[in-house]
Amino acid sequence: MGLTTNEATELVKALTLRVEELEALLNPVAILSQEDSSWRVVRQKRDALLRSTDWVMTPGSTIDQAAWAAYRQALRDLPQTYQAARLEDISWPVQPSL
Q1: Residue 66: which region, alpha, beta or left (left: phi > 0; alpha: psi -120 to 50)?
Q2: More confident residue, 83 or 53
Q3: Given a cut of 70, is residue 32 above it in pLDDT?
Q4: How many CB atoms are closer than 10 A to CB 73?
Q5: Cα 54 to Cα 68: distance, rounded to the nearest angstrom
Q6: Which of 3, 34, 73, 86 could form a disulfide with 7 if both were Cys (CB 3.0 to 4.6 A apart)?
Q7: Which has the closest alpha carbon to 73: 46, 42, 35, 41?
Q8: Between these two residues, 95 and 37, which has the higher pLDDT value?
Q9: Left, alpha or beta for 60 (phi > 0: left; psi -120 to 50: alpha)?
Q10: CB 15 within 8 A of CB 3
Q11: CB count, 10 Å around CB of 42?
């Protein structure tokens, strides 16, 4: 025995609503996962910049270590500073001159 047209229509409506509910639940997870991935890229760039400037903090260096220390601290603070911002809004600190 099959469904009547009205029963089939009601079933399709109910299933459509359920699918929309599930999509609404899953989309924030996908968005968070994408944001985590993007922030991972930001952290990787930040970490690379920190590694590339490790040498400036060696004792006896003749450069302005205070300026470099401030620059490096600004790099470390990036994830917290821009926590709620879009990645496009990140303003990367400018390296001090050598």
Answers
A1: alpha
A2: 53
A3: no
A4: 10
A5: 10
A6: 3
A7: 46
A8: 95
A9: left
A10: no
A11: 15
Return d(Cα 45, Cα 59) in angstroms, integer.
25
| pTM score | 0.60
Q: Give 70's pLDDT tier (boundaries 50, 70, 90).
A: very high
By three-state DSSP, how is residue 88 classified?
helix
Which sign, positive or negative, has the C-alpha torsion 55, 56, 62, 65?
Answer: negative
- Backbone angles phi and psi of 85, in degrees to 5: -85, 165
Q: Which two tokens stand for residue 65?
A: 């270590």
Tokens 């401030």 correspond to 70
